[in-house]
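Priority: medium. Attachment 1 of 2:
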């Protein structure tokens, strides 16, 4: 054997190192060292394919029959009625009357006195047309004043006082002029006045809200008619024509309401002294017309009469 050779002998329990021969002798195997730590887990493998669906189980037994519901006649409310039984309904609709709801037959009649029929739109139109034909219409291009008022040629109008005179419209009418007329005594120095004219609705027998503010005219001569062009349709009802001398002449007179005449229209009121209220007035009115307030009874002459002309 050459140098640098290692000889292991299991019989002896010693290791002899012979420098001369460079030989190591192991007489017994040593104890095993501790186990090393576990390595990291490897990645999971892919899932396997699903298995086949199992067979359908057998149908379960039928459940017990539920209890039978109660039977009865169908209940209805008026105007429906049910003369049938629990097994066969027999529905109908009651005829309407003035005291019971129900169905009504339509009719075009305008003379029937039935209380179990109903008028058609055609019957209503016929009745309306007949009623309208019995009303005296306004004649085109004619002027109209407040209903049946007695006049004076020299009623003196105060400055910034609005005078409201009644005007009844029996049928829908379009008017194209609103006008006043100066009195025979009009004039003096100053000789001109600015008069505003308009139309008001009526509420509870008095002027209320503005229908039309027609603007002003400049009055400069006696016994002269002054007009403003308008285009105003009025439906049937009571209105009030308004005039206000916002500036005045020295002798500021107009065709006006005469005092204490007979009632001018049906339902016209009287004052507590039983003087006929020919008009209403409102003081301190300047500029454009607004809702009428703080009205005073007019029983003396002086209210400016305002006129409308039918188109």
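Attachment 2 of 2:
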């Amino acid at each position: 054997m050459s140098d640098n050779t290692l000889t292991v002998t299991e019989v002896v329990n010693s290791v002899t190192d012979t420098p001369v021969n460079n030989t190591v002798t192991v007489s017994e195997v040593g104890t095993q060292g501790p186990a090393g730590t576990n390595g990291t887990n490897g990645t999971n493998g892919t899932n396997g394919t699903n298995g086949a669906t199992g067979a359908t189980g057998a149908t379960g037994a039928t459940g017990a029959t539920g209890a039978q519901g109660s039977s009865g006649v169908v209940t209805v409310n008026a105007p429906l009625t049910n003369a049938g039984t629990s097994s066969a309904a027999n529905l109908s609709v009651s005829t309407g009357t003035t005291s019971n709801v129900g169905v009504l037959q339509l009719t075009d009649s305008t003379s029937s006195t039935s209380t179990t029929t109903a008028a058609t739109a055609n019957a209503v139109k016929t009745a309306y047309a007949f009623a309208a034909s019995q009303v005296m219409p306004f004649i085109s291009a004619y002027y109209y004043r407040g209903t049946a008022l007695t006049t004076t040629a020299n009623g003196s109008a105060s400055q910034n006082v609005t005078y409201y005179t009644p005007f009844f419209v029996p049928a829908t009418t379009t008017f194209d002029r609103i006008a006043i007329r100066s009195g025979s005594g009009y004039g003096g120095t100053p000789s001109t006045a600015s008069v505003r004219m308009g139309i008001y609705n009526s509420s509870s027998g008095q002027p209320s809200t503005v229908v039309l503010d027609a603007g002003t005219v400049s009055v400069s001569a006696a016994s002269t008619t002054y007009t403003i062009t308008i285009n105003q349709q009025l439906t049937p009802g009571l209105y009030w024509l308004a005039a206000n001398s916002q500036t005045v002449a020295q002798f500021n007179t107009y065709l006006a309401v005469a005092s204490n005449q007979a009632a001018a229209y049906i339902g016209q009121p009287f004052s507590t002294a039983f003087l006929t209220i020919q008009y209403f007035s409102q003081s301190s009115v300047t500029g454009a017309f607004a809702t009428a307030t703080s009205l005073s009874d007019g029983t003396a002459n002086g209210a400016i009469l305002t006129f409308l002309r039918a188109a």
